[in-house]
Design a protein that fits this description.
The structure is a single chain. The protein has 338 residues and is of the alpha/beta class. It has 2 domains: 252 residues, no CATH class; 70 residues, no CATH class. Helix 2 packs antiparallel against helix 17, helix 3 packs antiparallel against helix 4 and helix 8 crosses helix 9. It is globular and about 55 Å long. About 17% of the residues have low confidence.
Length: 338
């Protein structure tokens, strides 16, 4: 039922997407120098990870690390802000540091880290309501010397995600399904300014009233096209950690990460991470392999997005694309193939 509702909200002429895709693919020929050959080979290797061949998984991990290091060597790090220490979760039991990034499977990872640290077996469903109250150790509670020691000696983990898929997931969660959606609709109500009055009438099909006891105004859903237009701008009041660049949140050129997990292959990547981090006998905490919504529904969201808005997103998230081995051009091909 949810997917039917979403598809009704997101209906758009397929012809426009095909035309848009053809124009973008023409541009690809002029833009090949931007995306290095490492990204395309990376995508090919990634598809083989489901074979669960240890050597293949290790090769993929080595390639991800090399893509990141190569970017940092070539682009430099002078203008990168250091991340907030609070963003890093610390496991003293296993000597781990995890840079928490929303919409990359962070609830799954926090559940796993909590269970590992405290010997528990909580599930992600139960953890969602408890995350803010659980006693996670964060790097901002340590002294400068303690921080330095942990950054130098602990195993450091970062989890990344395809930028377009992460944006779609953030919109679906924060503006459509999550209990906090009413607050997000209110906070980012001004995103509707990006749409013309005529477009607003056709795009807004659903609205919800804030819960009793809060502001009694009605705040409609911010349509996905309005969200994408807003994210593509530089307006600070439209920015949020749930869709902020991962490269800004975790500063991978400043922090020497030891392991890179992709949300797209989260369950397949974690066994190797456990092995490298020396986590033995807790295989019960490994996430299950399952069908991901990102493989199906999320890509349908972009059928209604104009070329110029996709291009702004590409430019804004260029660093994340290049750092982590994703390819915008491949994303366009996937959209056209649906």
């Amino acid at each position: 039922m949810r997917q039917l509702q979403m598809k009704k909200l997101l209906t758009f002429p397929r012809l426009l997407l095909i035309v848009a895709g053809l124009l973008i693919l023409v541009y690809i020929g002029l833009d090949k120098h931007i995306y290095k050959t490492t990204t395309s080979s990376h995508q090919g290797l990634r598809s083989k990870v489901f074979l669960r061949n240890g050597s293949t998984t290790e090769k993929i991990q080595a390639e991800r690390m090399e893509v990141l290091k190569s970017y940092c060597r070539k682009k430099g790090t002078k203008n990168t802000k250091l991340p907030s220490r609070r963003r890093f979760i610390v496991s003293e039991r296993y000597k781990l540091l995890y840079c928490q990034v929303f919409k990359t499977g962070s609830t799954t990872t926090l559940t796993m880290l909590h269970n590992l640290e405290h010997g528990e077996r909580r599930n992600t469903h139960d953890m969602r309501a408890l995350l803010d109250d659980l006693p996670f150790k964060r790097l901002n509670t340590y002294s400068d010397d303690e921080v330095r020691i942990r950054l130098e000696t602990y195993t450091k983990l970062i989890i990344v995600r395809n930028p377009l898929e992460r944006l779609a997931s953030a919109w679906e969660d924060k503006f459509y399904y999550a209990p906090s959606r009413f607050g997000y609709r209110k906070q980012y109500h001004s995103m509707l300014e990006t749409l013309s009055s005529n477009t607003l009438k056709t795009k807004i099909g659903l609205s919800s009233t804030l819960p009793e006891g809060s502001d009694n105004k009605s705040y409609p859903i911010v349509p996905f096209p309005a969200f994408i237009k807003a994210v593509g701008t530089n307006r600070t009041d439209w920015q949020d950690p749930h869709w902020q660049l991962i490269s800004d949140l975790c500063a991978p050129c400043h922090i020497n990460y030891d392991f890179i997990i992709h949300t797209e292959t989260l369950a397949e990547d974690y066994p190797l991470f456990f092995k490298n981090a020396g986590i033995v006998g807790r295989e019960d905490q490994l996430p299950e392999v399952r069908q991901r919504k990102g493989d199906t529904l999320f890509w349908d969201f972009y059928k209604q997005i104009p070329i110029e808005d996709l291009w702004r997103i590409k430019e804004k998230f260029r660093v994340d694309y290049e750092m982590f081995g994703y390819d915008f051009n491949d994303d366009i091909r996937r959209m056209l193939g649906r």
